[in-house]
Design brief:
This protein has a single domain (23-190), classed as Lipid/polyisoprenoid-binding, YceI-like (Lipocalin, Beta Barrel). The protein is built from two helices and nine strands, in the order H-E-E-E-E-H-E-E-E-E-E. The chain has helices at 3-21, 84-91, and strands spanning 25-29, 35-42, 46-62, 67-80, 103-114, 117-127, 130-145, 152-163, 179-190. Strands 1, 2, 3, 4, 5, 6, 7, 8 and 9 form a nine-stranded antiparallel beta sheet that branches.
């Protein structure tokens, strides 16, 4: 093979490799490693923490184009505080009204990156019949090859503070803080 043919072949292979790595990569959330935690101050003393489980979700990330999309459906009735009576109260119409609003849905269509790592995701949170904008900041993000099932897994921890009254969840404000910290712990497996 002459030098021109080798150069042309190398350029074609290099160009193909670049176009493959620039493709968006789709992931499905792993429900065993994904959850949402809500933290609110209780009467100015302790912090009440509630954990919610996902029903479904998918993520698409394109690190070359610096774009992404995420959709996570959270089961409101899955709320757990470690206190069954409090769990029932949070599911009631005084708080989340899980009977009428069984799902909270996070849809993010704007991603920012720090190198190849997702830094923030922005979009909308629909909960309790209301939709409002939301931006979550990454406090940790990583991808790895899972040694058990030989697939890429990406994920991290994302957090923000919301005012729950924006979603008409107003019970006991200001005694139970309007400001609520959300922490989204997520891991997703490449399709």
């Amino acid at each position: 093979m002459n030098r021109i043919a080798r150069t042309t072949l190398a350029a074609a292979l290099f160009g193909t490799a670049l176009s493959v790595s620039a493709e968006p990569v789709a992931y499905t959330i792993d429900p065993t490693h994904t959850s949402v935690t809500a933290e609110s101050r209780h009467f100015g003393t302790s912090t009440v923490r509630s954990r919610f489980s996902p029903k479904s979700g998918d993520i698409t990330v394109d690190t070359a184009a610096k774009t992404g999309h995420a959709m996570i459906v959270i089961d409101v009735a899955s709320v757990m505080t470690g206190v069954p009576k409090l769990d029932a109260h949070l599911k009631s119409d005084a708080f989340f009204d899980a009977a009428n609003y069984p799902d909270a849905v996070l849809v993010a269509n704007s991603f920012t990156f720090d190198g190849d790592k997702v830094a923030t995701i922005s979009g909308e949170l629909t909960m309790h019949g209301k939709t409002n904008p939301i931006t979550l900041k990454s406090t940790n993000y990583n991808c790895y090859l899972n040694p058990n099932f030989k697939k890429q897994v990406c994920g991290g921890d994302f957090e923000t503070v919301i005012q729950r009254q924006q979603w008409d969840v107003k019970y006991l404000i200001p005694f139970v803080s309007d400001d609520t910290k959300l922490v989204v712990q997520i891991e997703a497996t490449k399709n």
